[in-house]
Design a protein that fits this description.
Elements lengths: L2 E6 L6 H9 L3 E5 L2 H10 L4 E5 L5 H12 L7 E6 L4 H10 L3 E4 L4 H17 L9 E4 L4 E3 L5 E3 L2 H12 L5 E2 H8 L9 H18 L6 E4 L3 E4 L3 E3 L1
Parallel strand pairs: 1-2, 1-3, 3-4, 4-5, 6-12
Antiparallel strand pairs: 6-7, 7-8, 9-11, 10-11
Helix pairs in contact: 6-7
Length: 232
């Protein structure tokens, strides 16, 4: 069954949309918080996300771009249902990674057809080539790029990598990195230090392997390692 999540920020929720999707054979649920959406996308399988918007805002473009920046979510279907949106705003949404834009009121038959088309498209291509793999040598304090370049890591970078690798493909909260990874009190810890550690490691990675940046920022949550990686 096709898994659909409806993101509804409106004060008056459109519960009918979820009900109609379920009636048309989709496994549809609703959510109203972007951070919760990101966590759900990494913790459960989702085929299509529908943003049910009353008014378009510039923050919607940023939200779509953040989703599309995460490698594990690049094949996710994204549909916008909204009103009061001119052509310039529509183009901005499409450029940010939206698959389909529909104006309200939307016909459930049309929406269902788009969902099915997106699902067939994203599930019809099997990726032939295996993704390039990183290797993390915990005891040697090294990270090896897919091209074979070895990066020496600092104590905090090793602790950071250990946390990211344990939750590969899922966001790790900043406070967990500080408390569990570094063994420090997150209440008294200066988060700018963590930002500096992450930025320094990302620069190392970029300099050694500019083809990919596997450490991504998940705004309001923390960080995630998105590429395949093995430990040794």
């Amino acid at each position: 069954m096709i898994q659909v999540v409806v993101v509804d920020y409106k004060i008056a929720k459109n519960s009918n949309l979820v009900e109609k999707l379920c009636e048309h054979g989709f496994d549809a649920t609703s959510i109203n918080d972007f951070t919760q959406l990101i966590m759900q996308l990494f913790n459960t399988h989702v085929d299509v996300v529908i943003f049910d918007l009353e008014f378009y805002g510039s923050g919607d473009v940023l939200s779509i771009r953040q989703i599309r920046s995460l490698k594990n979510l690049q094949s996710l279907g994204i549909i916008i249902v909204a009103c009061h949106c001119d052509i310039a705003h529509r183009l901005a949404l499409v450029s940010s990674g939206v698959d389909v834009f529909l104006s309200r009121p939307v016909q459930i038959e049309e929406l269902s057809a788009y969902i099915n088309n997106i699902y067939r498209r994203t599930n019809s291509h099997a990726t032939a080539a295996a993704a390039a793999q990183w290797t993390f040598y915990r005891s040697e304090w090294r990270l090896v790029t897919p091209s074979g370049t070895s990066l020496g890591l600092s104590h905090f970078e090793v602790s950071l990598m250990e946390m990211l690798v344990k939750s590969i493909g899922k966001p790790v909260k900043r406070r967990d990195i500080v408390s569990i990874g570094f063994g420090l009190d997150p209440l008294s810890y200066d988060n700018r230090r963590l930002d500096s550690i992450v930025s320094r490691l990302r620069r190392k990675i970029h300099d050694a392997y500019p083809l990919s940046q596997p450490i991504k920022v998940v705004h309001s949550v923390g960080y995630i390692f998105t590429d395949p990686i093995k430990t040794s």
